[in-house]
Specification:
alpha+beta, 5-stranded antiparallel sheet, 3-stranded antiparallel sheet
């Protein structure tokens, strides 16, 4: 474990390097920070930090910069994230409250996160598997053709066409709609199959085939494999950090184009707290020069998806963590009220 004094020196190096983009020397540290020790002691502490792999010396400078290990310790020892100001909080709330539907909420969230953090923003759509049913609507399009509309508690709307094996009257349709909603409204998606399996038996023999077809379409909608969707924005922000990527920005851009990679980066939605992955902690090689800050969001205190940002390891971690957490909180409120 580092002594409190050396931890203080490491914090100062991280703060200065993030703020100035320049390697940090002992003279600058003693001038800018009240470390309470002599420059010689600071030099000794920096040498010890370098020996332990928390800071490194670029070839071009006598100063030092933090390593992935140094950033990790800095983040782990953070006393707290930087709170948003009252005007910032109001701006977030006003911007997100104008959304008209779930797609608009996600699009606004991406734009807002990218603007607040000046990083690449990634927002995962609420997952159906972690949602509850708000309502199932059934509409007659033709005597033997229906539209099934599934509405979730997060405002997600899924529509499917149903070709029935026989004509289905309006009275039967109204009966099926009422019986279906009485069983599944407000219930978790994972519970739905068991709640509807005996529903066809409540109908006349000539209608059971159509009821079974409707239920099959509903259950297919609940378990779709391609349900995980993402929206990404602010990729152009990376161009401001060209010198933070040692070789080229291309591997980062290529990684950001792969949805599977981004979903793994964000992590499991059931982990609602702020997660920070730094440099080589990201398994994808193209993202070894980046950090990812993510957090779960959802209504009712339960995370249904993740959002976060991707940027260089030279990142304002307290500020970025504060922004990501604040935006997630407001998105959760909007979903709860929608």
């Amino acid at each position: 474990m580092l002594s409190e004094r050396r931890l203080k020196v490491l914090r100062a190096i991280v703060q200065d390097y993030v703020g100035t983009e320049e390697p940090v020397g002992s003279k600058a540290l003693t001038e800018r920070h009240n470390l309470g020790v002599s420059p010689a002691t600071v030099r000794n502490d920096m040498a010890a930090l370098e020996d332990e792999g928390f800071i490194a010396q670029p070839h071009t400078s006598a100063g030092r910069i933090p390593t992935d290990k140094g950033y990790r310790l800095f983040v782990d020892k953070l006393a707290g994230v930087k709170p948003m100001t009252a005007p910032e909080r109001r701006a977030i709330q006003n911007f997100l409250e104008g959304a008209v539907d779930l797609d608009d909420v996600v699009a606004r969230t991406v734009r807002l996160l990218a603007q607040l953090t000046r990083q690449v923003a990634v927002v995962q759509y609420p997952s159906l598997t972690r949602s509850t049913v708000r309502h199932v609507e059934l509409l007659s399009l033709a005597p033997a053709r229906l539209m099934l509309v599934l509405i979730t508690d997060t405002g997600r709307v899924e529509q499917r066409m149903v070709d029935c094996p026989a004509p289905f009257g309006e009275a039967s349709l109204a009966d099926l709609r009422a019986r279906l909603n009485s069983r599944v409204a407000g219930r978790r998606f994972s519970d739905v199959p068991g709640l509807v399996e005996d529903l066809p038996e409540a109908f006349e023999a000539e209608d059971r085939g159509t009821v079974s077809t409707v239920l099959s379409t509903l259950l297919e909608t609940l378990v779709e494999e391609n349900e995980e969707r993402l929206m990404i924005g602010g990729t152009a922000n990376l161009t401001r950090f060209g010198h933070d990527f040692p070789l080229t920005i291309r591997p980062v851009l290529e990684a950001l184009e792969e949805q599977v990679v981004l979903l793994k980066l964000l992590g499991e939605a059931k982990d609602p707290g702020v997660t920070v992955r730094i440099g080589h902690e990201n398994a994808h090689e193209g993202l070894n020069s980046t950090s990812v800050v993510s957090v779960g969001y959802g209504s009712g205190g339960e995370a249904v998806a993740k959002l976060g940002v991707v940027g260089p390891t030279r990142m304002d971690y307290p500020g970025t963590m504060g922004a990501v957490r604040a935006v997630a909180r407001y998105v959760g409120q909007i979903l709860a009220e929608s």
